[in-house]
Amino acid sequence: MENSQQLPDDFIQICQSVTAKRPKAVIDHILQYGFITTEELKERYGYNHPPRAARDVREHGIPLETFRVTGSDGRKIAAYRFGDVSKVRFSRLSGRTGLSKQIKDELIRRCGCQCFIYLEKVEERELQIDHRVPFEVDGEPELAPESFMLLCGSANRAKSWSCEHCENWTSIKDKSICLSCYWAYPENYTHIAMQEIRRIDLMWQGEDIEIYEKLKQQAIILKKEIPKFIKEIIEREMR
To answer: What distance in Å separates the CA atoms of residue 156 and residue 183, rounded to the nearest whole number?
Structure first.
């Protein structure tokens, strides 16, 4: 079905100004058909985390609302359509190739070419700029490097899932809660998505993989799960 919604010309111009691949795919589909389902995002566009694609659109200042439709298997699934276009906010980061590059370069200069969550060095092209405090909670941040973080794809997906299932995201919307969360400041936090949790994300790569394989083999011999085995090693060292 073609989109019958009458959209203001200036709103359409803002939509067409978005060039990033993922939000552009969502926007163009909604412009043509009126809405897009999570099923279409996965099967037609290959986006296995639809809420992240919707979030990308919202971060460009374009309002989306979520509703339910019937999927191909008869079950209810989520779908997205434009929200109140009078509330459109042309993000200062939209069409921001040059500006985002400056922020990314400055963060790399300060902290190195690494994921802020996993603290592992990765290729620059694999690092994604992300708001420390989600846009859904605090809106558009000051355009300073301190407002952003660099994440590898895996960390970005993990953060998105955790944030989107946090009560502060869905209803409370208190920035101070985010500021003390692991996903915003992993170097200094008191909770994870409002849960009393502490975590350490460890990765082995390159020559370190050999160490991991030794841990794995020893855990198998002892018939223990690797996380539990590593905790026991740490506890012994702390005594």
So the answer is: 9
Contact yes or no for 104/127 (Cβ under 8 A): yes
Structure confidence by residue, pLDDT tens digits, 216-228: 999 999 999 999 9
Q: Rounded to a whole number, what is the largest CA-CA distance in the chain? A: 68
- 71-105 burial, b at 16+ Cβ within 10 Å, e below that, comes to eeeeeebbbbbbeebeebeebebbbbeeebeebbe
pTM for the full predicted model: 0.66
CA distance linking residue 23 with residue 106, whole number of Å: 25
Rounded CA separation 127/239 (Å)? 38
Within the chain, how many helices (H) and strands (E) appear?
11, 5
Predicted confidence (pLDDT) per residue in 49-58, tens digit: 888 888 888 8
Distance CA(151)–CA(128), nearest Å, equals 5
d(CA 1, CA 35): 10
Secondary structure of the chain: what % helix, strand, coil (to 5)?
Answer: 50, 15, 40
Nearest to 56 by CA among 98, 27, 85, 96: 27
CA 117 to chain centre: 12
